[in-house]
Automatic annotation (TrEMBL):
Annotated Basic and acidic residues bias: 172-182
Region Disordered: start-end pairs: 155-182
Name of the molecule in the record: Uncharacterized protein
């Protein structure tokens, strides 16, 4: 991303003013902190997150009906519904758990999440290799951003959680490291 010469010189001018402490900064008035709302947000976070996971996956399932996946071979367990696996991955990510403990947590929280079939940790593990899951996770990101579309004024290019940004950060860190080794 390149800026025009005028923008670059303005940025340099502002940086110089900040360094010299001559920038005309106007302090905002201190806002009153609504502690009761803060407390409520803290106490309601977990149940509201479970409701969000359930609701957003239900919406995704309505918009993208599961074609049934691959037919299973004769015998074996029946296939776990795609929305159930998606809910499990989202809950696992939110709780920050490895696959095995996630199995137990999904079993306990299954009703709140809307999980209809019990399954093991291997199902969670195998779900990460399903390309439909990656597509679904990006679609869920888009669904959860719908309510704020057009309302946000500030934007950070790497604030979307995309692996591209992580790769770029890693690459730039390695380049800096290699530069200091020379």
């Amino acid at each position: 991303m390149t800026f025009g010469a005028g923008r670059t010189s303005r940025v340099r001018e502002v940086v110089s003013q900040v360094r010299e402490r001559t920038f005309p900064y106007v302090r905002r008035p201190r806002a009153k902190i609504p502690w009761s709302l803060y407390t409520r947000a803290q106490t309601r976070e977990f149940p509201e997150m479970l409701q969000l996971i359930r609701g957003v996956v239900d919406l995704y399932a309505q918009e993208h009906p599961d074609p049934g996946g691959n037919p299973r071979p004769r015998g074996g367990r029946p296939a776990i519904p795609f929305p159930d696996r998606l809910r499990a991955l989202l809950a696992q990510s939110y709780l920050g758990l490895p696959n095995r403990p996630a199995e137990g947590e999904v079993e306990v929280l299954g009703e709140a999440l809307g999980v209809s079939h019990p399954f093991g940790y291997k199902t969670v593990e195998r779900s990460y290799g399903d390309p439909r899951m990656v597509t679904a996770l990006y679609a869920l990101l888009e669904i959860t951003n719908r309510p704020t579309f057009g309302l946000e004024e500030g934007f950070a290019a790497d604030g979307n959680g995309s692996p591209t940004a992580v790769g770029q950060h890693y690459r730039s860190a390695r380049e800096r490291q290699r530069g200091s080794e020379r």
